[in-house]
Fold this sequence. Notes:
- This is Cytochrome BD ubiquinol oxidase subunit I.
- InterPro entries: Cyt-d_ubiquinol_oxidase_su_1.
- Residues 457-484 are annotated as: Disordered.
- It is a multi-pass membrane protein.
- Strand 4 (282-283) and strand 5 (289-290) form a beta hairpin.
- The protein is mainly α.
- The chain is built from 17 helices and eight strands.
- The strands form four sheets. A two-stranded antiparallel sheet has the order 1-2.
- The longest helix is centred in the C-terminal third of the chain and has 42 residues, at 414-455.
Amino acid sequence: MNSAIHHLLADGPPQLLPARELMAFTLGTHILLVPFGVALPAITLLMHYRGLRKGDAVALLLARRWSAVMAVQFAIGIVTGTVLSFEFGLLWPGLMGRWGDVFGLGFGVEAWAFFLEAILLAIYLYGWRRLKPWTHFWLGLPLPLAALMGAFGIVAANAWMNTPRGFTLDPSGNPVNVDVRKAIFTPMFGPEYWHFVVGVILTAGYVVAGVYAVGWLRGRRDRYHRLGFTVPFSVAAILTPVQFVLGDSIARSVFHKQPIKFAATEIVWKTDTHVPEYMFGRLHPGGSISGGIRIPQLDSILAGFSPDTKVTGLSSVPASDRPTATQATIAHWAFDIMVTIGSLLILLALWYGWCWLRRRDLPGSPWFFRCAALAGAACLLTVECGWITTEVGRQPWIVYRNMRVSEAVTDTRAASLWTMFGIVVVVYVLIVGSFLTILLKMSGRWRRADEEALTGAAAEDLEGDTPYGPRPLSTTGGRDRGEE
């Protein structure tokens, strides 16, 4: 254990480890909410459009319920996102103090997008009772665009940290002559942004579909569950092979723009051609690899489409300028887990597509729905693994080849940071527990409302009006419920 901590610290100051762990925990928690904040509005509006276009009350009901989930998720995201914004300044003052003027615009764009998204979400939720159907839909359409704008700002900032551009350094080493356009549109921005956007959309699709897959396995074979599964799963299935291609593209971009990070994710020690690919395995400090599956020449072929492609190794730079063996192994495992899950999801998407093209129906095997129920959790795992690959593979740099993580960290005592870490863990456990409790209560209330509707009993105490349905008069004042 002590040896692992030593390799992670890599001779940094004592406060480096708690600062890293605190940032990793908060970001790792927040990032699980990101797919829903970015992609759930688009999936909801797709279902909303279907309901209006086809006059489908079930689709409208699903869209309205999903919009309620969006609201809860957004509220939780406010808390976790705000904590992260404070941590950038409190934990990494060296980064923000020196480089904030260069890449800080990305955070500004994300902040503006956040406020715009809050306003649009409020209008969309309000519109279910007050607005005309198509007016309501068109007013909700900018919501996913605002979410994508927020993602634009964050990914731009991260891409700059990976491939910093748009500045020159004065004799003191401080950035001057900032070119905002170059600082935003760095070489890694395009590959990172599209890989991120497609990834969060298919993740949200698989997670939402997984909820209805569980209901299907429990015998709920009504149209509500069928439609709730089919629409988001179809979106995710279509995007899965696209994401695999984008993932291959971003890996090749890393090969060209960040060769040492590529060497870490592929645990390549010596610069050479005909480099083998290792599936999993562990890199040791001397360069030896234990475990894993070795595939001859494949790494060179994947990097440059030829076994003669030269792949830069970790040993080509001093030890102080590269990830440690432990860090490289972490990045490598995260990358391989991501690739493995992506490959399995392609098989699941092909299974679904084959059955749909042959007989316009869902697969009949319960194993398909078991796999579909697990796909959402697997995608959330890939989201975490993608972040780990991006950040751990860049070590020891917080700004690639310009600032080390140890130079950016706060000088606050390690004991204070560990105390803060403990408090944040307790608060986040309470927040996540509250989030899950609210979702479960909402789900139970909706299920009871559906059961009441099937028996013909009044369900108004369990759920509001059916979207765009009749608003019955109250018995006390003659006003409809939407006007009380």
